[in-house]
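Researcher: Structure prediction, please.
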Amino acid sequence: MKFERTAGILLHPTSLPGAHGIGDLGSEAFKFVDFLEAAGQKLWQVLPLGPTGYGDSPYQTFSAFAGNPLLVSPEKLARENLLSDENLRNSPHFNPVCIDFGEIIALKMSLLKKAFVRFVELRKHESEPAFKTFCANNAGWLDHFSSFMAFKDHHGGGLWTGWDHKLVIREKSALKEWEKKLSKDILFHKFVQFMFDKQWQELKKYTNDKGIKIVGDLPIFVAYDSADVWANKEFFDIDENGALLTKAGVPPDYFSPTGQLWGNPLYRWDVMAKDDFLWWRERISKLLKLVDIIRIDHFRGFDAYWEIPGDAPTAEKGRWVKAPGKEFFHSLKNYLGEAPILAEDLGLITKSVRELRDSLGFPGMKILQFAFGTKMERRFLPHNLTQHCVTYTGSHDNDTTRAYFEKAKHENNDIYSSTQRYLNYYGDDLRFELIRAAYASVADMVIIPMQDILNLGSEARMNFPGKLGGNWTWRFTWDQVAPDIVRTYKNLCELYERPPKPQPPEAQI
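Model: Predicted structure follows.
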């Protein structure tokens, strides 16, 4: 698929400002869209939007279909008469630049439960057509997810393999009994998903009406502790009791000398192929209702994936196993047409991965932080970029560009000096010159992390692969947005034609 020459910003909604300790889908999200429009940006990239679990990672969620309850705006619930002003006033003061997930989860779930009580009191679950329609249209995943979360809550939040054994194996009579016993709790989770979807669709419409597209993120693997695995065991490489036979990760690389042990269950692709990958088609169709463009995380896993034994302590021991990439994507196209997909093709990329990406016409990713220096990736140098790609200064897994260059300055390598020579810039803001180089490149799309737009240091890093704890917590404040930023990026978009300027009629002949 051909993509227009554009520019955008990477910012997960949790990183937005706001009064309740975490960014949400309320007024600050709409203000950010206004900021994007004023700065000439046409893309807003977000991370996966699912309900986060242990470790708070958006790449390890309780469902590949559901939305994150923490993103639901209390202010918007109040406007629907589901929360009172007093409910909102009682919110404690939180750190404006760092999320404390422990406190936030307790607060947000308390507010959501208050809103649900009011929702039931008003009998909206019976009288509101939109709620009934949402539940009916999403029953395929919503029923499983809502039951999963109610059962999980009842079992103290524990991993599903430790629940009542009849629930673990999904015995039909036991499921009915538990669903009847926990019917109100199940309804609560349906209510939360309804509110997430309602608020997200309002935000998406506002964004699209301003000519801005949302780039979503689809992790190739799903979390072990998820409704997806619990309800569809036949699709995953686990035994009858749910124990992992194999698990996902990547071998040692730039980020980790022992590899990355993700722990996700691997797919039984042969089983999934029997119904033309119906589960996958439903997953992608659902995401396309939330976003305009899909970035597939770990795209190389569709060509071959790193299979690690289920009991392995690290990702060092494993083997590459072939995946049904072409068969899968051709089946997808037959049912859904040509989907707007970007391929995250970083890391150990082989010839067959490149051939798969190119045969499907998916743009790949280029990270400029990886480009400069003797031992770095020369294919990411601006003069080596191709038009059909999306270029970043860094990603959510990188340190901020300012911090990256500050460290490189004092390390025993030529990264900093090589970047200076290449950009012919010897001043004190190499970060901005790298952004300018991205904008000036032939790449169709340029997406810059908000941390780099704001020129922030390591305190604003979003994720450190392989590090437990302290990730995903960064937030920005409007005080950090310098007065000239909007004009600066609007000028860059105009200067480097993102999007291209309309040509006069005589130039089109």
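Model: DSSP finds 20 helices and twelve strands in the chain.
Researcher: Thanks, that helps.
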